[in-house]
């Protein structure tokens, strides 16, 4: 829990079919890096992400545990490659950052409360972000949906997966979240002990889930809770999500 598991990355590849696509759209989902320093596991995650050749990268918050690591982590994030953009929404521990400056220097776009529509080989991809305090804000979500009214596919970023409660009744297709660390400490056949989330435990445990028409992708994160919390992961390895939206047959 202190040495082996926190340093052994699990890469989960997910395919989701969608009509009217000319080619697959590839999305790398990062979350909860919450690092005390960049090491072999973090570098392996970046290598796998770059080999996936993503169209976009989404980072759903909680980037580091100590402000002294800002230069090192910024340099690490600049090494991620993409075709059409990298987007970031803030998490619980990101108050120690100057978020817009950090994102700009790390090569990410700070997306709290804003949206972008991208042309990905003829498909219009709407990317929307809810800030940490806005995961229950249906008015902001409605505004972001209007700002992406030309999009064929809408993806929503929210650090907290509880945003599914407002997203499941909206024209959002995919929700990307983190926050739970998959429980970080889990029991075999039972799963997470604590998730700090109101979503069902199975969803908080990570991976792909469907709620009504909404696909929910929760990352267990790459790092661990910092400060006075013990640096342990048990039955809950660091998690990189490689998501491919493929043309529907």
Keywords:
249 residues; alpha/beta; 6-stranded mixed sheet; 29% strand; globular
The Rg value, from CA coordinates, equals 17 Å
- From the N-terminal CA to the C-terminal CA, the straight-line distance is 43 Å
Measured as a percent range, the helix fraction is 10-25%
- The sequence of SSEs as H and E is EEHEHEHEEEHEHEEEHEEE
How would you describe this protein?
- With 249 residues, the chain is of the alpha/beta class.
- The protein is 19% helix and 29% strand.
- It has six helices and 14 strands.
- The strands form three sheets. It has a six-stranded mixed sheet with strand order 1-14-2-3-4-5. Strands 6-7-8-9-13-12 form a six-stranded mixed sheet, with helices on one face.
- The protein is globular, with a radius of gyration of 17 Å.
- The termini are far apart.
- The mean pLDDT is 95.
Short overview:
This protein has 249 residues and is α/β, with parallel strands linked by helices. The protein has six helices and 14 strands. The termini are far apart.
What's the layout of helices and strands?
Elements: E1 10-18, E2 25-30, H1 40-51, E3 56-59, H2 70-78, E4 85-88, H3 99-106, E5 109-110, E6 115-120, E7 123-130, H4 138-147, E8 153-158, H5 164-167, E9 174-177, E10 186-187, E11 191-192, H6 201-204, E12 207-211, E13 214-218, E14 239-247
Parallel strand pairs: 1-14, 2-3, 3-4, 4-5, 7-8, 8-9, 9-13
Antiparallel strand pairs: 2-14, 6-7, 10-11, 12-13
Helix pairs in contact: 2-3
């Amino acid at each position: 829990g202190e040495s082996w598991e926190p340093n052994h990355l699990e890469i989960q590849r997910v395919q989701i079919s969608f009509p009217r696509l000319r080619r697959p759209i590839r999305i790398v989902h990062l979350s909860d890096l919450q690092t005390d320093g960049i090491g072999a596991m973090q570098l392996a995650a970046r290598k796998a992400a770059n080999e996936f050749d993503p169209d976009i990268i989404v980072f759903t918050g909680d980037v580091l545990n100590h402000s002294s690591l800002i230069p090192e982590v910024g340099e690490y994030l600049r090494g991620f490659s993409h075709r059409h953009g990298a987007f970031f929404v803030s998490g619980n521990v990101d108050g120690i950052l100057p978020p817009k400056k950090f994102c700009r220097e790390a090569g990410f776009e700070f997306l709290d409360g804003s949206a972008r529509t991208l042309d990905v080989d003829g498909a219009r991809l709407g990317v929307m972000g809810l800030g940490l305090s806005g995961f229950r804000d249906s008015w902001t979500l409605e505004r972001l949906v209007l700002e992406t009214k030309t999009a064929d596919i809408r993806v929503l970023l929210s650090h907290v997966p509880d945003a599914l409660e407002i997203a499941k009744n909206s024209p959002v297709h995919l929700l990307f979240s983190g926050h739970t660390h998959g429980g970080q400490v889990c029991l075999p056949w039972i799963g997470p002990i604590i998730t700090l989330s109101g979503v069902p435990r199975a969803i908080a445990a990570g991976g792909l889930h469907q709620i009504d028409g909404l696909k929910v992708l929760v990352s267990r994160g790459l790092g661990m809770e910092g400060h006075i919390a013990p640096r342990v992961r048990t039955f809950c390895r660091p998690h990189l999500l490689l998501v491919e939206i493929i043309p529907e047959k």
